[in-house]
Design goal:
Blueprint lengths: L12 H29 L25 E7 L6 E8 L2 E3 L7
Antiparallel strand pairs: 1-2, 2-3
Pfam families: DUF7573 (PF24458)
Organism: Halostagnicola kamekurae
InterPro entries: DUF7573
Length: 99
């Protein structure tokens, strides 16, 4: 019958060599990442210059609601309704809405 292996049997010089190789690789990776970041930050020669002093374009008109729910009075027939639509600036009931 053979002896059972222990954890100490698996540790040795090979592990030390592997860990030093990994450290060397991580140092070179960090250096290449720094170089890559510098390349990304540099402007290409043919890059267009952006003029940040220009005035903003025309203002966008805010959206207008066309449907409301709750307790409303129709401005056409004066009926109290729980749903109303906006038609020509007035809240109207479904019956008075020009579909």
């Amino acid at each position: 019958m053979t002896e059972d292996a222990t954890l100490s049997a698996f540790t040795g010089d090979e592990d030390a060599a592997d860990s030093s190789a990994e450290e060397g690789a991580s140092e070179s990776d960090t250096a290449s990442e720094t170089e890559s970041d510098a390349e990304l930050d540099a402007k290409p020669e043919n890059a267009l210059e952006r003029d940040d002093t220009t005035e903003p374009g025309p203002a966008v008109e805010p959206a207008t609601s066309t449907y409301v729910w709750g307790s409303y009075t129709c401005e056409t027939c004066s009926e109290t309704v729980d749903r109303a639509w906006l038609e020509d600036g007035a809240l109207v009931c479904p019956t008075c809405k020009d579909w």
